[in-house]
Structure formats: structure tokens, C-alpha cells
Automatic annotation (TrEMBL):
Coiled coil: none annotated. This is Anaphase-promoting complex subunit 4-like WD40 domain-containing protein. It comes from Enterobacter agglomerans. Keywords: Repeat, WD repeat. WD repeats lie at residues 60-98. SUPFAM superfamilies: WD40 repeat-like. Signal peptide: none annotated. It holds the Pfam family WD40. PANTHER family: F-BOX AND WD REPEAT DOMAIN CONTAINING 7, WD40 REPEAT PROTEIN.
Length: 280
């Protein structure tokens, strides 16, 4: 089935699969050949591009909460409410490393282009190398961290209550703060690095334009904004908080002053969102 958006984007449903429990995260591999799924029953599953199940392991007590692919797509990291981080061989599903993520459950994971794995647990940001050794020390943030993303310049962004923080592996404290009064639940920086977006508990999305050094906000969401993401070319911005996928066209001065496109793909609230590399 195909869907044509008002901005001219065509979305094709290529396959679908069912999991036994609530899906917390989906994540495409960088080479687009696999998709990983983390579920509330503690399972981690990997599917091939055509929908074939490659492997599934139920390993995280109380739920699997976070996923991240290695930059070469050969390994997958998973984290859960048990506070454990597992590293899996992508094709076979064999576990190669297992180590403690820190205090509390593993909220988010992200792998840098040069192979460093970052994780947030509670108020703490940690980084490990490919051998599972901690390579950076960071001071605890002032509030629970909710979002995590590596940047092209080697820094990291995290979100939490009242701010987005920029960290550098060589500095214990944040090197920059983007302040906004509210509880931020999600984080997505545009691939071109020009815009930082953060969804809030108050039903709004706040944006910082890094090049122009200004900011703006979109209000009116009926639910907490936990799911946001960008197309690889930074033109389209995706959000989901209910049954509909909401697509904003950021061409020109957008998304300010533009109307979004609503696509109803699901009969129940959307719980995970991951733009594909060809989604542009």
C-alpha cells in the first residue's frame, strides 16, 4: 500500500510484523539491511530488510528500552530496565559483550561514527569503547536525561528537564546549554546540524536553530511528545503521539507557518518511530 503526502513524499508499506508486547524502539541499521526492535517483554529482535526474522532474544528484565547500531552495521547494542547493555553480533545474534550501564535503567544508546558507544542512565552520561571499557567521565546532569544523540563534530546532545546539553568526551561538564522551561522527553538534531528539536511533556516541540542562534516552538499536541525524527536530507520532520504520523515539510522557512500532513497508519497509538535512509 502506498501513501502520498501533501508535500509529495510517497510512503510505501513493504512489510509488517507482530511482536508479543509493546514496542519501545525500532532502529534501522546504517546499511538499511536490517531493523532492530526492542519490546516491553524484554526481547530484542532483528529482522532482515524483507521482513524475515533473523533472531530474537528475551534478555532484559522488566523490558528492553534502547537500541543502537554500530556504524558498520555488524553489531547491535541493546539496553533495558535491568540496567544492562548487551552487544550482539548482527547476523548471528550471538552476544559478544555484557556490562552494567550505570544506575537505573538504560534510557538511550547511540553509537558514534568512530565506534564509541554512549548511554544515558538516570542523570548520568557514559561512553564505552568497543572493548566495553569506560573512556570518559561526565558530571551528573541536574535532572534525568531523556534524549541522546552524537553530532558530526564529535560532541553529544542530551535532553532533560529545562534544557538540552552539549557534551564533549574531553570535558566532564557540558560545553553548552540550550535552555527552555519545560520537561523535555525526546531529542532529534537534524542530520545537517542546523536544527535541534526537543519534544516536551507539555505537548509542544521546541526548536533551536544552531546557525542563526534563534529558537521557536510548535504547540497544540494533545499528548506528550515522545517520538520525533528527521529525514536524512533534513527536509522532513516527523512526530507521533497518537495513531497518526505527522509530517512537517521544513523546506525554505518551514516548519513555521506551514500545515503538517497527517497519515493514519495504525489503529492504536504509535509507540516507536524510525525514519529510513530513503525517506526523503
Amino acid at each position: 500500500m502506498s501513501y502520498l503526502t501533501s508535500a509529495g513524499m510517497t510512503l510505501d508499506e513493504t512489510w509488517h510484523a507482530s511482536e508479543a508486547d509493546y514496542i519501545n524502539q525500532v532502529c534501522f541499521s546504517p546499511d538499511d539491511n536490517q531493523i532492530a526492535v526492542a519490546c516491553a517483554d524484554g526481547s530484542v529482535a532483528v529482522y532482515a530488510q524483507g521482513g524475515e526474522l533473523l533472531w530474537r532474544h528475551c534478555v532484559h528484565g522488566l523490558g528492553a528500552t534502547a537500541l543502537a547500531w554500530a556504524p558498520d552495521s555488524t553489531a547491535l547494542a541493546s539496553g533495558g530496565q535491568d540496567g544492562i547493555i548487551n552487544i550482539w553480533q548482527a547476523q548471528s545474534g550471538n552476544r559478544t559483550h555484557r556490562y552494567a550501564g550505570g544506575r537505573g535503567w538504560v534510557e538511550k544508546l547511540d553509537w558514534s561514527p568512530d565506534g564509541l558507544l554512549a548511554a544515558i542512565t538516570g542523570k548520568q552520561l557514559n561512553i564505552w569503547n568497543d572493548a566495553g571499557h569506560s573512556v570518559s567521565f561526565f558530571a551528573a546532569a541536574g535532572s534525568t536525561l531523556t534524549g541522546l544523540q552524537w553530532q558530526a563534530d564529535g560532541s553529544l546532545l542530551t535532553s532533560g528537564y529545562g534544557q538540552v546539553l552539549r557534551w564533549h568526551p574531553d570535558h566532564a561538564a557540558p560545553v553548552k546549554e540550550y535552555v527552555w522551561k519545560g520537561s523535555l522527553l525526546s531529542l532529534a538534531s537534524s542530520p545537517n546540524g542546523h536544527v535541534i528539536a526537543a519534544g516536551s511533556q507539555e505537548g509542544a516541540i521546541h526548536f533551536w536553530r544552531t546557525r542563526k542562534n534563534n529558537e521557536f516552538q510548535m504547540d497544540g499536541y494533545n499528548n506528550k511528545v515522545r517520538l520525533i525524527g528527521w529525514s536524512p536530507d533534513s527536509r522532513f520532520f516527523f512526530t507521533a503521539g497518537g495513531e497518526a504520523l505527522i509530517i512537517w515539510d521544513c523546506k525554505g522557512k518551514g516548519p513555521e507557518g506551514t500545515a503538517p500532513d497527517y497519515q493514519d497508519f495504525h489503529k492504536a497509538p504509535i509507540t516507536a518511530l524510525a525514519p529510513h535512509s530513503r525517506c526523503s
